[in-house]
From TrEMBL:
PANTHER family in UniProt: HISTIDINOL PHOSPHATASE-RELATED (PTHR21039), HISTIDINOL-PHOSPHATASE (PTHR21039:SF0)
Metabolic or biological pathway: Amino-acid biosynthesis; L-histidine biosynthesis; L-histidine from 5-phospho-alpha-D-ribose 1-diphosphate: step 8/9
Sequence similarity: Belongs to the PHP hydrolase family. HisK subfamily.
Name this protein carries in UniProt: Histidinol-phosphatase
Biological process according to GO: L-histidine biosynthetic process
Protein's UniProt keywords contain Amino-acid biosynthesis: yes
GO cellular component terms attached to this protein's record: cytoplasm
Alphabetized UniProt keyword annotations: Amino-acid biosynthesis, Histidine biosynthesis, Hydrolase
Source organism of the structure: Gibberella intermedia
Amino acid sequence: MAFTLHSHSGEFCPGHAKDQLEDIVKHAISVGYKTIGFTEHMPRYDLRDLYPEEEMFATAREASSRKTEESLYEDYYDLQYDMLKELRPRVVGHFDLVRLMSEDPARDVRQWKGVWDRILRNLALAREQDGWLEVNSAGLRKGLAEPYPGRIIAEEWIKLGGKFTFCDDSHGIAQVATNYARTVTYLESLGVKEVWCLKRTPNSGVDGTMRATVEEVSVPLSAFREHFP
C-alpha cells in the first residue's frame, strides 16, 4: 500500500503545478498508490508572491533580525511554532524546508544553539499534539542529500516516539513517486519500520445520514519496498 499525503495538481494550483487532478490520480493508481492527498496552495494575487525561491530566500534573510542565515533559520522556526500552536496540524509538512536555498544545506544546525533549541521545541509541540512529520521525497528531487526532514531532525523525532507519514510532494504526473526507493532506504537506515496514513471509513447510516470518519492506519515500510525496490 503506497501513498502520498502531499501532492499538487495544475488544475487547482495553476502556474505552480502541472496536469489535471484526475490524470494524476489515475497515474498514481497505476504505480501502486492506494491513497493520495492533495494539498493545494492558496491562489496568489500579488506579484510579490510569485518571486523565484532564490530571491525569496535572499529577501527573507535580509529581513531577519541579524541579516544572517542563522537568524533567518530562527525566524523560520519561530513562525513554524506559531503555526503549530494556531493550527495544530495532523501532518507537519517539509519540516526543515528552510535549508533548501541555504548556502550549506548539509550544515549541522546543532552548531547554532538558538536554531537547534527552536527545532527541539517545535518537535516537542508537534509530538504533544499527536502530529505526524512527513518524510518528503521532494528534497532529493531538488538536489538535497536527504529528504525532509534531515537525519538529525528525524532522529530526534524518533526519540520522541513520533510518527512519520510519506509523501512525494509531486507537482504533476512526472513527479509522482519520484525518489521513493531512495526515501525508503533513508527511512530504513533510521530504523523506521512503518509510516502512517489516513483512511476514510464508510458512513454507518443506512440512509447516508451518518458522517464518515477518518482513522489512522499503520503501513509497513516493506509495503513501499514491494512497489519501489
